[in-house]
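# nightly structure sweep
# worker-07 picked up a monomer target from the shared queue
# config: single-sequence mode, recycle default, output format = structure tokens
# input follows
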Amino acid sequence: MDVFISQYEWIQRTRELLFRYCETMSQSEYVKELESFGGDSIRNLHVHVADCYRVWLGSRGLGQSLPPFTPESANNVKEMRDIFRATDALVHEFLQEFKGKWDHTIHVSFGEDESAVISALWLFTHTVTHEFHHKGQIVKIGRQLGYTPPDTDLIES
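# output follows
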């Protein structure tokens, strides 16, 4: 068993529960920007999560030049699922590239004056915990819009 592939499968199942939840919303509520969340919408947060995988795993980890995901890339959950299919392929490519090499380090620059040396394990951990952080925000926005969320914790089904 590859533990990281298994872990990512759990994440995908949880994301699927979240997508099903979002499908109960109207399209206008899915894209509605709430001032209480800094002007973010559920759609914008989903795009932000996918783009985080693109930047950290694709660009920084694999050295790929990939176009950014933008909120205009998806106006509904069906289109967001397409973005995450591409994201899933990228994650699996990353997991295959660094399998057994989780301590491999990469030098990352954050502008002219800041940089860090981070490991492949850090990159994967950062992106998946980042997704779960925003999953909580998405559930909270849904509650504010009047929708009762399902349990999106990692529960065996």
